[in-house]
Amino acid sequence: MANAYIKLVPASTKQEISLEDVKELFTYYKEITSKTGQQVSWEYADAAFPYQIKEVDKENNWLYLKSDEPNYNAIVVGVSTEEVEDDNGDMRNQFYIQVTLSQVSTFGDKGKANEFCKFLAKKLEAELHLFNGRIIYYNKRK
After folding, report:
1. Are 12 and 126 in contact (CB under 8 A)?
2. Mean pLDDT of all residues in the chain?
3. Could you tell me if residue 17 is inside a domain?
4. SS3 of 25, please?
5. Which residue segment(s) compose the domain that 7 sits in?
6. 13 CB neighbour count, 10 Å cutoff
């Protein structure tokens, strides 16, 4: 299993996020990619988001992206919080989105998961911790 994290830091556009917010962002992603497809006369929306959103566990804030396409299988997305120390030494709750590739995930899933992570992090101006351990800062830094 591999995980990537989109962390909502103090400079992010939101400080809290719910599973419903993540679903709305995926819906927005599908909308904008379908508009791109219309502009280039190609069914880009299905290629850009080859998944159906399946809710797995509302209690634990997880949803499941399942695909019937040949090169894709599944991605799991969750929302949670962690306690972190801020610059002043105070403890605070930090929300994050976790994107998980399971043992049945394909290389196509990993590519799409990276794409979705970058989209979500950029939209939320968050800190993205990629599957390979690298960090991309989409938030304004001091």
Report:
1. yes
2. 87
3. yes
4. helix
5. 2-137
6. 11
Domain count, the chain: 1
Q: Per-residue pLDDT for 90 more than 90?
A: no
In a domain, 142, yes or no: no
| Pair of tokens at residue 54 | 């399946």
Burial classification of residue 88, based on how many CB atoms lie within 10 Å of its CB (0-12 exposed, 13-18 middle, 19 or more buried): exposed
CA 5 vs CA 16, 70, 73, 129, 139: distances in Å: 14, 26, 20, 5, 14
Angle between helices 107-124 and 19-39 (to 10 degrees): 100
Residue 87 pLDDT class (50, 70, 90 cuts): confident
121 domain-assigned: yes
Q: Give the helix/strand (H/E) hosting 127.
A: strand 127-129
- Give the Cα separation of 59 and 71 in Å (integer): 30
Sign of the C-alpha dihedral computed for residues 107, 112, 118 and 121 taken in this order? negative
CATH, residue 57:
3.30.310.120
